[in-house]
Structures are given as structure tokens and as C-alpha cells.
Amino acid sequence: MTRVAWWGAVSSVAAPALLIGGWTLAASRQETTFDSVTGTISALAGRGADDRWLMTGALLGVGLCHVATATALRPARRPGRWLLAVGGLATIGVALTPLPADDSFSVGHAVAATTAFVSLAAWPALSSAGGVDAPWGLRPLVARVAAAVLLAAVAWFFVAAVVDGPAVGGAERVAAAAQSIWPAVVVFSALAVQSSAASPSGDASSGRTGRARRPQR
What we know:
The chain has helices spanning 7-28, 41-45, 52-72, 78-96, 107-127, 140-162, 168-198, 200-210. It is mostly helical. The protein is elongated, with a radius of gyration of 21 Å.
């Protein structure tokens, strides 16, 4: 099996840490009480937010982490890795196109956010790898189920945003958190396979099965 590059473990864990830590810290820095159930992540990075650089920096970091994870996740199929990278670049686009100070609609922000959410939800379906030694996070059924769950979470957020629902911020956080965590799940499932293959017992077992038996005298 193709090995995961070492930086994948770092970038895949850093992404959810930056995202969740970023929106938590940014919300605490608002002069008026910020409700994370009704208020969106984008509002914390908008031009009218207090210390908007916190959420903006977090989004930039998350995007870079997704791109790094995509380059490291070599056991995954290339289309899935490309889509994960696109999601990371679109997340950077979200940070670079903040909402106006009055929280009005921004075409650039909407395009970047939609691209990021859809790409980061759909990439597992294109990343699955066959074979008995495939990491469980990349097995076809697991990958498809993961993509379905992530897309369902994104759909919930999109509907809440369109109808201006009372829990739009909560729906966005559920979708964004799940999308940021799944790459780490896949990376560590691949690392577990690598570790098992490299263990002494695994080497000994493969040696026994691969060595021809000597004829007895």
C-alpha cells in the first residue's frame, strides 16, 4: 500500500483544531454577546466583526491544512485528493472574501463557501480505494456513507441559510466540524494499516508465507 506522508498526521489534526478553536475564540472576542447557534462562522470573519483577524486566520490555516492533507494522503484515489485540495483552496477563498460590515450578501463569498462545503463533503466518495489491505476509511462503503452524511449536513445548513432559520449557525458548525474531522479519520486509518504492516509480527508472518518450505530429509 502507498504510504501516507508524515505531514498528513499534523495537517489533518490541525484543521479541526484551528477551525473549532478559531470560532470559539473569535466568538468570545465580540463586544456584544455572540450566539453560535444563530450566528454564522462567516460573521466572525466579516468586516463588521471585532478582531476579525482571528477567524480569518483560522480559515486560512484550515484551508492550507486541507491542501497539505490532500498531498499527503497518497493511498486515496487521485480524484478524491484533488477535490479535498479544491475544498482547501475554496476555504482560503472564504477567508479572502469577507462579508460586508452590514452582513449583506456577497457573491464572491457565497461562491467560495459553496465550493468549499460541497467539495469537502463529496471528496470521500471519490477517494475510496479497493483491495483487502485498504484502510477502512478508504473502503468503498465507508467512503460513500461518509460522503452521504457530510452532504446531508451541508444540505441542512444550506436550507437553514436560505430560509434564515433560527439554527443556521449551529447547522453550519455541525457541517464544518464534521468535514474538518473526516480527513484525520482517513489519515489515521491509513497510518494504522502502515503500522500493522511494519510491525515485527507482520514482517514475520509475511516472511513465513512468502518463503518456500524446505523439503524434509
